Amino acid sequence: MPRRITPIDLPNLTGTRALVTGASDGMGLVIARRLTSAGAELVLPVRNRDKGERAAATIRQSVADAVITLHDLDLASLESVSALGEALRSDGEPIHVLINNAGVMTPPERQTTVDGFELQFGTNHLGHFALVGELLPLLRAGRARVTSQASIAARSGSINWDDLQWERSYDGMKAYTQSKIAVGLFGVELDRRSRAHGWGISSTVSHPGVAPTSLLSA
Description:
- The chain is α/β, with parallel strands linked by helices.
- It has six helices and six strands.
- The chain has helices spanning 26-37, 49-62, 78-91, 119-141, 172-197, 214-217; strands at 17-20, 41-46, 68-72, 97-100, 145-149, 202-206.
- 43% of the residues are buried.
């Protein structure tokens, strides 16, 4: 018997600024639409501007007064992450919600990021790790809630410390699992450090479930 999905009621988020990565389709788009419907201002960083514009238009079809700002972001490029951080810091507006949602899953052949990291580890973990670092002053100012999307895959497998970038023997699923374990470890450590140093940031890790999105069809 299929499990029933119970909708979650969101509080009024008027005056809240939320940033969601990977929100141009799939789960990210649903999350972004729910946040804007509750009144949040949405920062929508996208790798593909045309796709981002279509996503913004889709959200506005159901949330006519949605406030959405598009920015360029390629999580597989640390230079791109740095550029987004600089742009948002120059705005000086606190960020109250950050959803680290974007991800890459099991490319059949080993690929690398612009900076030479295995694509899944570099995008899913290192890209978001760097993004949080770039946005840390804004997250602290907004006493932000940071949620990082893990995966059920993180329940098995391990970090391949002897070949972290999978250069000697690539296994797409094992590399994906490693990246999601790293995401979970970072989410937990961010919360620990926030509590230890009084940053005011709440960091949680989420397994959003399995859905037939473009991630599975890639």
